[in-house]
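Late entry, written up from scratch paper. The run itself happened at the end of the previous shift, but nothing got recorded in the book at the time, so transcribing now.
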Amino acid sequence: MNTPESHILVIFGASGDLTKRKLIPAICKLHHEKRLPEKFAILGASRTEMTDEEFRKSVTDFLPQEDNKCKCDEFLDKLYYQPLGTANADEYGKLKDRLEELKEKLDIPGNYIFYLSTPPKLYGIIPANLASVGLNKQDDGYTRLIVEKPFGNNLETAQKLNKELLDYFDEKQIYRIDHYLGKETVQNMLVARFSNGIFEPIWNRNFIERVEISSAESSV
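Output as recorded:
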């Protein structure tokens, strides 16, 4: 696997359970497996007032326990925190300044990934606020926007959210995650299993280790 370019990952909703229990441990594992660049940082952002050290301490208990302390400490040093009212456009200038500070301090190009681990009502607000201070631009590197589930509640709301995102970010900058996209496919598999005498006896946990369903977005 190719090592990605040096970048800063900004996680909105950094004080929430998803970040602590899922995102940070997963990224920590990638770090230990040397799948992340040497020059890399995570900047957590949310309303909760915390320092960098308090943020690091808050996620320590969720790091993989099988990894040694030295590796964990090395990973924790890459974590930073910025208090931010995500719905308040006036505060995004502080976020931009902090990113500039980290970019200079850590000698990282202007490559930013913005991960929206927030309530869905903020999915349209945060991109607009990022754009208001120019953080959607790609003048000194690349910028990416990752939107967590749910991506709308139905076709109409999904299309509305998509239009809002495209007002501020290009299609190639946007990554969408929605665990519900495969729901009907899974239901169809269940129908095929229980209505077919050939499949039903062998489609169970004794013979199948796992099922993976991928719906990849076109890069065009």
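The mean pLDDT is 89.
(Scratch paper discarded after transcription.)
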